Amino acid sequence: MHPLLSLFSSWSQRRLFVAFAVILLPVAYISLFYRLGSAPVVLWDESRLGMNALEMLNNKNWLVTYAFGTPDLWNTKPPLLIWIQASLFWLFGANEITLRIPSALAGLATTALVAWFGTYKLKSPLVGLFSALILLTTNGYIDNHVTRSGDYDSLLVFFTTWYVLSFYLYLEEGHRRYLWYTGIGITLALLTKSAAGAIFLPALLLYTILRKQLLPLLRRKEVYVMVAGIVGTVALFFIARESAGAGYLHAMYENDLGGRMLNDLSGNNQVFPWDAYLQMLIHDELIPWICFFPIGFVLLLHSTAPRIYRHIALLIALVVPFFLFVISSAKTKYFWYEAPIYPFCALLAGVGLAFIFQATITALGAGQQPWLLLLLMLCIFAYPLSVVWSEDFQPVQEPDFLFGRHIKYQAKEVGQIENYTLLSGLDYNSSMEFYRLAAMRKYHHKIRPLPSWRLREIKVNETVVVCNPVMRARLDSIYTTTPILSGDQCVTLLIVGKK
Fold first, then answer.
1. Does the pTM exceed 0.70?
2. Mean pLDDT across 285-308
């Protein structure tokens, strides 16, 4: 126990569990689950994964992912998340919530892992509680491409946090189960987002060397069993996938390894400075929690701190900078690539904030006044939570993403329409394709997708759904139409004739 972070350490486990549940669950609900299905499915990755999962259900091929009816060599990451999403679609139907709930639950699990580690391994309930609250109010983590969307990153963050902390505990405590947890975490991280799941491994090797534990590890048989299990499992998938469709490994290298490191695959032709991620963290993603990092480091390295605190300081000082160095060196840069460092940043900031909070409580003599403790916590976390709220609950304005809402409305109001065309204003619209496949599965409709450049293929007496006002104007300039049903921005039209 850290003598400067001992508040609530004498509480029973039951009392701690109740206190944590009362404080954390409402914040977790607001940050992770509130209005999770309100925004439409958008480009790029989220709708692509949803489309992959629906095609997997339709063709019953659980090894090869498909997009637009053909093997998908654009999204080449292993299909662990797609398997989960497809299973949820089969059980509960395909919609925005079932697409995104794996990410939200992974975010909740990561929060619980951080709270558990701070409370029971660092032996400071206050650090556990504040680290969890900080993670739930970190702007870069509670984001539409991490914990609040159907993308890979939230699940990746859970598995990377899982295996880094498990390996740390294996070196600290020597229990073999933590080594097995490490192996399972590494395997699942690799099966979630391929090479991105392994970025922390060199930093863990360096940590092991600095702790003078490398040679003892190399003498343990279970280490080789773990490595063999990881390599065997991952290799088995890649061999099976390549055998099912030649060219997969080459496409994966181009997309996920050499391609992203050596080329900008974002397509926006924007040149980012080398320290772009650091600037985003300092000026946006980690505000205001980055202010507590120096205090956290001082406390972790304080002369009165137990050895485990100094070791976690070394771990964080290695894994976070190394991860940032790797992703900063890549040509392709996206803000969500930073996501795996957030739990470790939350632990560091949690230590600093817990110290300030305990010092304040001690100075006020308020340790036995629960209402005052809750009031102080509310004052601390209200603003960061409001920032998350304001940035992540903005309505989506792109009309070409609104087909799902209109199809549902149309099925309710004019259910007799079972054969129609979806006219997109975009040349590529995986959002529309997701909603098309979902509607075909739910309503058994016959739906034809039509991109903007194939507008003149529409025939007389065809029923068309269009959401983009520009495409509606182009449609009306070529054809005579009769409105059947109007929604917020979308409209269902009957093509009467050509002009």
1. yes
2. 87
